[in-house]
Amino acid sequence: MAQLLDGRSLAKVVNAETKQRVAALTDRHITPGIAVIMVGDDPASMIYTRNKEKKARQLGIKSVLKHYPIEIDQASLMNEIAALNNDDSIDAIMIQKPLPKQLNETELIDAIDPAKDADGFHPLNVGKLFDNQTGPYPVSCTPRGIMRILRHYQIPLSGARAVVIGRSILVGKPIAALLTNADATVTLTNRHTKDLKKLTREADILVVAAGITHLIDQADVKPGATVIDVGMHRLDNGKLTGDVDFDDVEPVAGHITPVPGGVGPMTIASLMAQTVDLAEWRRNG
Ligand code: ADP
């Protein structure tokens, strides 16, 4: 029986810390502010965005939704980002995906002030992460949440063999960098990887972010391994599940994140904590 890595409970701890840090800033007459840029009316994005706004408000963070019509052009959105960069009440800026095809996402992310980069996607911040600079600088929120889980449950990282499935800039690449910086030996895999399951069976730490329902089952996991499931899928019966077949893997794993209640709640808690980091860094100069 694995020990459950309870992201829901840990997120409450992180959010309580964030709330206290916001109160300390408010005492100095500073209210941390996050701006969420959303283009069009994608229903999933609307839900995510609303959840972020609600959480921000609960913690005392000012949240501004910048909602633009689906047909907005690149130049107009670049101007909007420039305005947010110059707005002293805004500490953190994030762009909600997906974006319509006429927009150049790379150029938009590059335009965000790296000191207001809520998601840690700006190339300057990504570069600092890969350079293992001491910081401070923001990092992608899902990997940040995963590292907090690993630290909280005292999972040994130095010398551990870690396998990461999926190489997105959102999850796979930054978690590989963070684990490498923490002295783990990391194998970063993708859809072309040969003998993937041979690699996963050797992992002390297995991070699964491929976006494939139940890609990993018991036979793919080394007994006692720590299994981190970043996937989120809705089954036909309405239940949520991950990239890992939890019921199958849980008896052999040492530690495992559930879906829901694992990585998900830590991602939004990390975004809020990072917003307050950015406010502190910028205001403390
Ligand atoms: P996420 O946002 O969770 O990282 P994405 O959908 O952006 O997910 O990316 C999925 C990643 O998973 C890609 O990097 C892709 O190469 C990788 N991937 C997809 N299928 C497999 C597979 N069978 N084995 C290993 N990696 C895979």
Automatic annotation (TrEMBL):
Q: Which GO terms describe its biological process?
A: L-histidine biosynthetic process; methionine biosynthetic process; purine nucleotide biosynthetic process; tetrahydrofolate interconversion
Q: Which InterPro entries match?
A: Aminoacid_DH-like_N_sf (IPR046346), NAD(P)-bd_dom_sf (IPR036291), THF_DH/CycHdrlase (IPR000672), THF_DH/CycHdrlase_cat_dom (IPR020630), THF_DH/CycHdrlase_CS (IPR020867), THF_DH/CycHdrlase_NAD-bd_dom (IPR020631)
Binding of NADP(+), residues: 166-168
Q: How does it assemble?
A: Homodimer.
Domain Tetrahydrofolate dehydrogenase/cyclohydrolase NAD(P)-binding, residue spans:
140-281
Quote the protein name from its UniProt record. Bifunctional protein FolD
Lineage, opening ranks: Bacteria, Bacillati, Bacillota, Bacilli, Lactobacillales
The GO terms this record gives for MF are: methenyltetrahydrofolate cyclohydrolase activity; methylenetetrahydrofolate dehydrogenase (NADP+) activity
Q: Which residues form the Tetrahydrofolate dehydrogenase/cyclohydrolase catalytic domain?
A: 5-119
Q: Which PROSITE patterns match?
A: THF_DHG_CYH_2
Q: What chemistry does it catalyse, as a reaction equation?
A: (6R)-5,10-methylene-5,6,7,8-tetrahydrofolate + NADP(+) = (6R)-5,10-methenyltetrahydrofolate + NADPH; (6R)-5,10-methenyltetrahydrofolate + H2O = (6R)-10-formyltetrahydrofolate + H(+)
Family affiliation: Belongs to the tetrahydrofolate dehydrogenase/cyclohydrolase family.
In UniProt terms, what function does this protein have?
Catalyzes the oxidation of 5,10-methylenetetrahydrofolate to 5,10-methenyltetrahydrofolate and then the hydrolysis of 5,10-methenyltetrahydrofolate to 10-formyltetrahydrofolate.
Which keywords does this chain's UniProt record carry? Amino-acid biosynthesis, Histidine biosynthesis, Hydrolase, Methionine biosynthesis, Multifunctional enzyme, NADP, One-carbon metabolism, Oxidoreductase, Purine biosynthesis
One GO CC term on file: cytosol
